[in-house]
Amino acid sequence: MRLSLLSLVFVPSLAIAGCNGPVSETKPISEDVKPAVEKVLQVSGSEISPASDPTNEGGWVLNPDISDEFNGSEIDHDKWLVQGKDNDFYIWKGRAPSQFAPHNVILEDGLLKLRSQWEPDYAFAQETYADGAHNDPYGMLEGKPVPVTTAAIVSKKRFLNGYMEVRSKANPSSMTSAFWAIGFEQELDIFEQMGKPQTQGSISGNKTKLTVHDWSPPAIRPTRAFGYSHKLDHNVSEQFHTYGAEWGVDYLKFYIDGELQFHQTRESLGLDWVLNNPMELWLDSEIFKWLGVPTEDELPNDFEIDYVRVWQKPSTNLLQKHEAFFGFEGPMLFEDVEKPLDLLPEDATDNEYQKFWVIDEAAKNNFRITKNRWYNGVNSLKYVSRSGQPDLEIKTPEGGIQLAPGEYELSFKILLKNGIQPKKLRVSLTSPEVVIEPFQLEPQTRGKWITLKQRFTKDSASHENDQLKLEILSDDVLNGGTDFFLDDIRIEAVKS
C-alpha cells in the first residue's frame, strides 16, 4: 500500500467526506488509502451517518447485523449466505445461462468483488431456470456454450424499514450489478446496472433502474408494482458512487451520492404499496440475455462494493422486530433458525423460520386478515359478527411474545363500524398467564381509527412458548352485531 505521512494525517477528515458527503467526479478518497480510512471508520463506527443525512438529524442507528465494510480476507459467513457454498443455493442458482459460484465472492483491497468469468471447465448445474417467458439451461444458450460463472451474497438477517446504502462500481461488461432486497410477497430492486450492455433497453451504462415487485399470489409475471429509471451523467462502471434507499412505513426514497432522486408514497399508490414486511439484502451479478451476452474477451470483470450499511431508527415499541406481524402484514420470523433454502417470497406456509397467526377453524368464520381497511401497511384483522358464534380466539405462534418482568402498556388501532359491537375484546399472555383488563368496545367512537390502551404487569419473564391471545366470548356478543378492523398492536414499557 502506498500511504504517505500526509495521507495518514488527513485520514479522519477524508473518512467523513467519503462516507457522508456526495462522491465527486474525482474520488475524494483514493483506493490506496481506503483500507486506512476504514480503520478509522471501525474505531468511530457510531459516528458513520447516511450520505442522505450526514449530520444524522434523523437519529439513525447503524444495524451491524446487515452492515459490512468488507475489510477482512474472506466474507463473514455468520452475516452472509454465499450462493453455491457447500453446493447450497437459496431460491435459485442465478439467471441462466450464468450460474452463481462461491469462488467468485472475493474480498480484496478492502472491497467486496463479485466476479464474473468465462469458465469452460466449470461443472454447471444440469437443469434449466424458468423466468417468465425464458427457460434456459445453465452454461448454454441456444445450443451454444456460454460458460459464465458469477456471484451473489444474501444477508442472513432481515430488517423492517430503514436506510440502506452501498458505495459501489458496476461491472464494466454486459453483466448486471444489482443491489436488491426481498421479503414476504415483495421485492425492492434498489438498482440494476450494467456497465456495457450490447443492446439498448431499460438498462444502459449511464442509467440506473429501481423496481418494486409484488409477489403476492398468484406471483406470475409481470409482477412490477412501481419503479423509477434515472439517466446519469456518468457510466456506472467508471467510478464509485453512493446509492441509498430510505424505506419508511409509508414511503420510499432513492438517493445517489446523498442527493434525492425519487420519492414515492403509499398514499399515492394504494394497494400497489407492497413494502410492508422485513427484507434481506442481496448483492449479485447476472446475465440479462435480452441486453446481450458477454463474450470470452470481456471477462473476467468485477462488480465492486466498498461497503453496505443499513441504519434504522430506534422505537419504544417492544414488538418492533415483529411490527409487520402485529400489523397483520405477514409472518413472524424466528431468525435463530436458518431460512429454508426453498423459501420463495410468495410462500405463505408455516415452517420453523416463519409462522403466521394461529386462527382455529371455528374462529376462521369470524376472523380474517383483509385488505379492506388498514391503519398501516395494507392489511388489518377483520372481525365479522355472526349469530350464535362460539367463544373465539386468535393467537401468535408460541414464542411470539418475550417480555421481562415489569409494567407495560398494550395498545392497538381499531375501526368500529356503525351498529352493535361485541361488548369486550379480551387480550392475555399465555405463559405465564397474564390477563389484561378487557378492552371495552361499547361505547366507543365509530367510523374512524381510534387507539385503545390498557396497562398490565408481568411479575415474571415470558416462558419460551409465551403467546399473545385475542378473544371474543359468546356472552359478550349480541345478535345482529357488526364488524370491526384491528391493526398495529404495540407494547411499550411504562416509565417509572
From TrEMBL:
Residues 1-17 form the signal peptide. It holds the Pfam family Glyco_hydro_16. Keywords: Signal. The keyword Signal applies. PANTHER family: GLYCOSIDE HYDROLASE FAMILY 16 PROTEIN, GLYCOSYL HYDROLASE-RELATED. Belongs to the glycosyl hydrolase 16 family. This is Family 16 glycosylhydrolase. It comes from Hirschia litorea.
